[in-house]
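Notebook entry, structure prediction.
Reason for the run: the old model in the group folder had no record of what sequence produced it. Starting over properly, with the input documented here first.
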Amino acid sequence: MLIHVIADYGPGDLAFTEVAQRIKLHLPDAEPLYTPVPAFATLAAGFCVAQLGLNPAPPNTLIYHNVAPRKDDEEARAGNEGERLAFARLPTGVRVVGVNAGYAFSFVRDAATELRWISVPAGGSQFRSRDLFPEAAGEIVAGSTVTLAGEIEPSAIPDVPTDRVAYADGYGNLKTTTEHEALATSSGTRLRIRIGETEREAIVSDGTFEVEEGELAFAPGSSGWPRADGEEVRWRELFLRGGSAWEVFGRPDIGTRLEIAPNP
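New structure, fully documented this time:
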């Protein structure tokens, strides 16, 4: 079975291998695929969860994610206690097991057909995604109902913030939480976009390659998925043809706001 491991351990980090080894201990048929996100970037994790989970996937696919900044309580924490482990079942049949931290479940909250807490200790290990969570994932895949606890109230999961950097891909394209249809401007319109301390001109387009070499497009990218109502959401991304938008905007952190204004 395909298991997507989404975490902020760092690309190529030993932690990914340790987690995969423990997952295969409890799920011998598992075929892990790794998707790293920046440290504590729950918005990027949630974006990846939705992109992989709400689009067509092989039967029995499981998403196992762990980005746990432990920011739900700023006091000293006994036993390395962290945010609670949660479960979601998506309309595609994909199951999601992961920590309910920040925006990790925000993109799938409304589409999920089931949202439940998972009965595992909140503490007991610094490395919970290796020592505690894989066994729970194995029990869920095996059909255990004891592992699943009460339903999660939607209010326990925040809304997706608008106009933020959600993910930077390997080409330096900046995937954002600006919906394609939410930008009421026609193709070819020139805008000023500020991210952090950097402001650049971008051209609104219906496709990333509809700009000349060296120009910045603000176009519907390759990421999107069906909503709960059946309509498809498509997210805009900043694409520098022949370069890296991430570099041009000063390598912004995940979650940084986009300020969008008409070009004077």
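Summary: The domain at 2-156 is CATH 3.40.50.10790 (Rossmann fold).
The old model has been moved to the deprecated folder.
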